[in-house]
């Protein structure tokens, strides 16, 4: 009987260890989720920064337009203007590729976040199911234990009666 209790105790401890591992994994996934959200917030700040860069670029173009009539040499003006346009074009291209890269990263991170949320939900469902199974098993084992104790008691009573009857005979 003690072996049965020991076995039940070991099984309960094993299940409790599984439950703790599940809780630890949930905590780790939650930490990763927070990191991903922080990274996403950083990406949004960078996008706002890019918007201000575009405004600065537009301001630069406006200043260049004001300066053109003031310069003495038209050839020199044209060279400067071409250089500025080329620079702006390269910056614009660089900006566009950076924005596309960031959009892709954000999309990937969002998908990863979604997958982790699904994983967390699945783990929580499994943990809930395991908890219910464990409770059910505990109830069954409690009933079996009570039944075993009752049978032990009945056995002792019958044994006592047998001893008494043997003494009488």
Automatic annotation (TrEMBL):
GO terms for cellular component: centriole; cytoplasm; deuterosome. One of its GO terms (biological process) is centriole replication. Keywords: Coiled coil, Cytoplasm. Its main location: cytoplasm. Residues 92-126 form a coiled coil. It is found in: Cytoplasm. This is DEUP1 protein. It comes from Nyctibius bracteatus (Rufous potoo).
């Amino acid at each position: 009987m003690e072996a049965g209790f020991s076995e039940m105790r070991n099984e309960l401890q094993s299940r409790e260890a599984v439950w703790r591992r599940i809780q630890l994994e949930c905590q780790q996934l939650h930490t990763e989720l927070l990191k991903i959200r922080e990274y996403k917030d950083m990406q949004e700040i960078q996008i706002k920064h890019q918007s201000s860069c575009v405004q600065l670029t537009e301001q630069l173009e406006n200043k260049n337009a004001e300066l053109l009539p003031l310069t003495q040499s038209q050839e020199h003006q044209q060279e400067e203007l071409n250089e500025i346009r080329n620079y702006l074009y390269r910056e614009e291209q660089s900006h566009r590729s950076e924005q596309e890269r960031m959009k892709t990263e954000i999309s990937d991170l969002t998908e990863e976040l979604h997958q982790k949320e699904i994983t967390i939900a699945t783990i929580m469902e499994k943990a809930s199911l395991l908890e219910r199974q464990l409770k059910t098993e505990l109830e069954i084992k409690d009933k079996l234990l009570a039944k075993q104790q009752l049978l032990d008691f009945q056995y002792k009573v019958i044994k006592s009666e047998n001893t008494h009857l043997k003494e009488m005979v």
